[in-house]
Amino acid sequence: MTDSSTSGFFADRSKLDLENYVIFDYLFESFVDPEEAAAHLCQEQSTAQWKRPGVDEDLRGQFGAKVIELNVEKTLDGPTMALPSTPDQTSYECRVKIAHPHANFGPKLPNLLTAACGEGAFFSPGISLIKLLDIHFPESYLQHFEGPKFGVEGLRDMLALHDRPIFFGVIKPNIGLPPEPFAELARESWLGGLDIAKDDEMLSDVVWSPLSERSARVGKARLECEQILGQPKIYLANITDEVDRIIELHDLAVGNGANALMLNTMTVGLSAVRMLRKHTRVPLVAHFDFIAPFTRMPNYGVDSKLITKLQRIAGFDAIILAGFGARMKTSDEEVFENVAECLEPLGQIKTALPVPAGSQWAGSTAELYDRLKTIDFGIVPGRGVFGHPMGPRAGAASLLQGWEAHRQGITLDDYADAHPELKAAIESFT
């Protein structure tokens, strides 16, 4: 690139009307001059060729992506990862913020992500590794998105539950049970105090457990439990499927008594979620399948907090995400960032309930509360409820007992002396 070609993709932040731009925040590694690499990144993502031969014009002013911040973080002896055609020579680890005119793609998530993560970003000349860390949205862009229909407060109103975290439970065994015993497990967990009984992310509309029968049986069990207890409960049915079946499965499950629905976000796509949000009258819950392959490498892919933000924008009311602990292979910092993306202000968009997952049991709620400093979260045990040695009713009861011990300032062991369900949980899961 010539000097003039490079400079045409740089701008002074203060001279831009940032309401007209989204800001892409990247970490990249280059084996060419960082300014040249950043300019290529802007060019490939926006105008590419910015004029017609023989015509006096320059499309970069209105349509070009522009570097507004560039910092060289490290100089490296060679590339961190030797990809095909990456030369073994001095490389630069850089942080760059790029203002991209959102009129180039409009308020459409597939098109936004094409600009942010498409060919132009990941195959840009001179860049060997790149990770999209975040996207910052102006109010003028966010106002086109509806976000959660219920949000945290709507979920709480639905459950008539405003003074503690929300207890989810993954019905186990997750694969292989026919609808009748599956529904009985849900019933027992609700009777023990569980708020939300859910299908596993692996359980869909399958021949040995058709969603039509499963949702009818579990939906009926939910209504019966609500009558017995005088408390609202939620059955969270998984309707992950081919996109052209999602509305059909939504109507089927909701008609049968499922009063919340789960989608594996990245497998169906954010646009499908947005479509469903416009159609539905029940809360939508995201599961984190197929997110780790995009996010796990430190210098490549997409940061998980951005995917959480996009799920919230698309319309999820609750977001199940990788939580604390060794099983999830996720740093504490990453968990905190993802929780923040659910709860921090984001234009007019409602908050979404964060549900950090990972081998949880009766002792997990207090630990999460102490770390998150809020009751606005959910926990989602599987085995901690449905693998409890005294059965799922006792497993669910142990969750409430664990929280009550914490609320009263009593140790789990001391509280367990008068609560056999909690005692059995301690013995089984610690």
3D architecture notes:
The model has no long low-confidence stretch (mean pLDDT 96). The protein has 20 helices and 13 strands. The protein has two domains: 140 residues, RuBisCO large subunit, N-terminal domain (Alpha-Beta Plaits), CATH 3.30.70; 279 residues, TIM Barrel, CATH 3.20.20. Strand 6, helix 9 and strand 7 form a beta-alpha-beta unit. With 430 residues, the chain is an alpha/beta fold. Strands 12-11-9-8-7-6-5-13 form an eight-stranded parallel beta sheet, with helices on both faces.
In brief, what are we looking at here?
With 430 residues, the chain is of the alpha/beta class.
Mean pLDDT: 96
Count every beta strand, where a strand is a DSSP E run of 2 or more residues: 13
CATH topology of the largest domain: TIM Barrel
The fourth-level CATH homologous superfamily of the largest domain is Ribulose bisphosphate carboxylase, large subunit, C-terminal domain
Biggest sheet descriptor: 8 strands, parallel
Task: Give unreliable regions as ranges.
Answer: none
**Helical segment count:** 20
How large is the radius of gyration? 24 Å
Q: Given the helix and strand composition, which structural class is it?
A: alpha/beta
Strand % is 15-25%
What's the SSE blueprint?
Elements: H1 3-7, E1 21-30, H2 34-45, H3 60-63, E2 66-76, E3 91-101, H4 109-117, H5 119-122, E4 127-136, H6 139-142, H7 151-159, E5 166-170, H8 179-192, E6 196-198, H9 211-229, E7 234-238, H10 246-255, E8 260-264, H11 265-268, H12 270-279, E9 284-287, H13 292-295, E10 301-302, H14 304-314, E11 318-322, H15 332-343, E12 353-357, H16 364-372, E13 378-379, H17 383-386, H18 392-408, H19 412-416, H20 420-429
Parallel strand pairs: 4-10, 5-6, 5-13, 6-7, 7-8, 8-9, 9-11, 11-12
Antiparallel strand pairs: 1-3, 1-4, 2-3
